Amino acid sequence: MNSHTTHFTAAIMAIFFCITNQQAFTVGSAQIQNVDTQVEKPNEQKKLNETLVAPPTDQNKNIKPSTPVETIDLDKERPVDVGASAQNAPMESEITPAMEESVQRGLRYLAGLQNDDGSFGRGQFAKHAGITALCGLAFMADGHLPGRGAYGDNVRKALDFVLSSATETGLLAAENSHGPMYGHGFATLFLGEIYGMNNEDARVRDALTRAVELIINSQNQEGGWRYNPVPYDADISVTICEIMALRSARNAGIKVPKETIDRAIAYVRSCQNSDGGFRYMSTSGTSLWPRTAAGVASLYYAGVYSDNSIDRGLNYLQDSVNPDAGGNSGEAHYFYGHYYAVQAMYLAGGKRWTAWWPNIRDEMISKQAATGGWMDYQAGQAYSTSMALIVLQMPKRYLPIFQK
What we know:
mainly alpha
C-alpha cells in the first residue's frame, strides 16, 4: 500500500474518531497534547474538543484563496446549457419493487441498532454524532421526520442525541471523539436537513447556527478543512463533509459567507490530478475513485454546475467504477465512495444518471445481508447500512439537499 492510500485510509477511519496516536496541535500560543484514547478520560477529551477551536471570524476573514477562483453565486439557477439534474427528470423504473423491499428490510434492521440514548454505533464507534446523523438521514430519506412516520421516533431520538453532543463551541461530537470534524460535518448536515423541513425548532436553529460558525472559522488558508476545528491544514475528504453541511444549512436559511464557498472551491480544484481524479491533499498524490466522487459532489454543492473539473471527474468515475462498464469499485471505502458517487451522478443528470443508477442500485441490493443490513468490517453495520440506504433512496428525492 503506498503512502497516499495509507493517508486516505486514515482519513476514512477518522470519520469514526479513532485516531489514537499522539498528536500535538498548537492553538494560538498554547500547545495542546492529544493523548491515547485508551488512557484519556472522557471529560478531559470533552475539554480538549472545546479548546481545539478556530480563532474568531475576524482573524480568518482576510485570508485569500491560494489560487484564483471564479466568483460563484450560490443562489443562481442552474444554467440551462448544463442540462437538468435528475431532480426533475426521473427515469423509467428508477424505483423497483426489489429496491423498495430492500429498503424496508434495511430500515427495520437499522432501527434495531439504535441505542437507548438515541445514538447509533457500538464498541469503539459508540456514541458517535456523525454515525447517528447518517442513520437519521437514512430514515429521513424515506420520508420519516421527528415524531412523524413509522420511524419518526427513531429520528427524534437521533436528533436529541446529536443535540446533546453539542459543545459550547458549537462542535457536534461525542466526549471521546478524536479528529471530530468528519462527524461534525455529517451532524451539521443532519441538522440542516431537519431545519430545512421544520424551521420552528429553536434548539435545532441554535445548534445549527453555532455548528456552521465553527465550520466557517476553522477553514484553513488553502480553503479546506481537516480532522480538527483549527485552520491549519486540509484534505479533500473532510472538506466535502463541510461543504455539504454548509450547502444544507444555506438551503435552510442559515447565512454562509460567499467568500467561504469561493475559497472551498479553490481548494477542491487544487486537489485534481491530470487524469481527472482527485488526490487526498493539494500536494502531489494519486487519484482514487472514492475521493474523486467526493470532489465532484463538493463542486456541485458549492454551486459549480459547468466546469471542466466536473466533466473530467465524472469521466474518471465512469471509467473506473461504473458497474455497467465492468469497472471494479472494490471493497475499500466502498460505502463512502458510492455515497458520494451516486450524488455526483444524480446531480449530473442525463445519460450519466441513467447509465449509473440501475447498476449501482442492483449491485447495492445484492450486497445486503440476510439480516437486512450491510456490513463494513472497519466501521460497523450502523455506518454501512445507513450509507447503503441513503444510496438506494436517492430517487425518492425526500431530502431537501437533493432538491436544490
